[in-house]
Write a structure and sequence with these properties.
By secondary structure, the chain is α/β, with parallel strands linked by helices. It is 42% helix and 17% strand. It has two domains: 112 residues, Rossmann fold; 172 residues, NAD(P)-binding Rossmann-like Domain (Rossmann fold, 3-Layer(aba) Sandwich). α1 packs across α13.
Length: 350
């Protein structure tokens, strides 16, 4: 029988953990803030070292979802779920059905979807136990291409702010991670005439980018020392830290990964070096904007063109953020947090 435990931590509304020996499910759902609406955030499956590491990841990701929805001006809150396990080895229908029952336990306060280590097919199994699932094949589907589209718009906004033109032809982009989102971003950048330097821990994903886009492959560590115009982190979080921030040889950091800064001070380090940083939860909001259709327009057929039109607004959102950061002399990640908190305060007093 599943063992559920509910608690609160600091400013998070609800932390729900589940240990279900029968299915093997060990999972955490973190609901950060529902001031703007129900929490929406995907389910990540990862081989965490222990439950504390899984909880810490869920907490960071959930807060990021709150801020992502707020800056994107969506009537949604922030939450995230993580399943402890090897996504290549430990997936079973029983595990995802148990996870679906866990989500149902929250009575609609949290809506899940796919994320790193999970897929649309996995969410179809979750749907057998709860209606609080987004991103199914019958709805908005795989968010990866749409997330990449938003990042592409964000990169053009960053380039325009830096050099006065958003023409990417001849620009060199160092892409860290060529998996789902990274692959689609590489495709768009290649189509715009950019030169690509890529890395990935998967030789298959790396070779695909080399063959299809004429990219230059480098080792995972060498990507930080690559001379390029743009560094696009599209793998896991924390890639910009006290060791790597000083090594970057780029003018812009703009990519799809969540929690790119290991610590806020790393954003300050980029600012001091004159590197323009596109805050992660602003530039990568395309996936959330897309999947939000399933929650905010659940009685209507999914409209891909309308969703992409909303995603394209990331360009203007980032442009305004860059201008405000320049006017106030503040790092861009500080301004992004300020905007999110301002919108939450307004909603709290409405």
């Amino acid at each position: 029988m599943a063992n559920y435990r509910t608690r609160t931590i600091n400013d998070y509304e609800t932390i729900l953990t589940c240990d279900d020996p029968e299915s093997g499910l060990r999972a955490v759902v973190a609901i950060h803030d529902t001031t703007l609406g129900p929490a929406l955030g995907g389910c990540r499956m990862w081989s965490y070292g222990d439950e504390r590491e899984a909880l810490d990841d869920a907490l960071r990701l959930a807060r990021g979802m709150t801020y992502k929805a707020a800056v994107a001006d969506l009537p949604l809150g922030g939450g995230k779920s993580v399943i402890i396990g090897d996504s290549r080895r430990d997936k079973t229908p029983e595990l995802f059905r148990a996870f679906g029952r866990m989500i149902e336990h929250l009575n609609g306060r949290y809506v899940t979807g796919e994320d790193v280590g999970t897929s649309v097919a996995d969410m179809e199994i979750v749907r057998q136990e709860t209606t609080h699932v987004a991103g199914l094949a019958s709805g908005s589907g795989d968010p990866s291409p749409v997330t990449a589209s938003g990042v592409f718009h964000g990169i053009r906004a960053a380039v325009r702010h830096r050099v006065g033109s958003d023409d990417l032809n001849g620009m060199c982009v160092a892409v860290q991670g060529t998996g789902h989102v990274g692959y689609h971003l590489c495709r768009m950048l290649h189509g715009a005439g950019a030169e690509l330097v890529v890395t990935d821990v998967s030789e298959i994903a790396l070779e695909r980018a080399v063959v299809e886009f004429g990219a230059q492959a480098v080792s995972p560590d060498a990507i930080y020392d690559t001379a390029a115009d743009i560094f696009a982190p599209c793998a896991l979080g924390g890639s910009i830290n006290k060791d790597t921030a000083s090594r970057l040889r780029v003018a812009i950091v703009a990519g799809a990964a969540n929690n790119q800064l290991a610590e806020p001070t790393d954003g300050v380090a980029l600012h001091r070096r004159g590197i323009l940083y596109a805050p992660d939860y602003v530039i990568n909001a395309g996936g959330l904007i897309n999947v939000s259709w399933d929650v905010l327009h659940k009685d209507e057929p999914y409209d891909a063109d309308a969703a992409l039109a909303e995603v394209s607004k990331i360009d203007g959102t980032l442009s305004a953020l860059f201008e405000r950061a320049a006017d106030e002399g503040q790092p861009t990640h500080v301004i992004a947090d300020d905007i999110a908190r301002e919108r939450l305060r307004v909603a709290e007093h409405a």
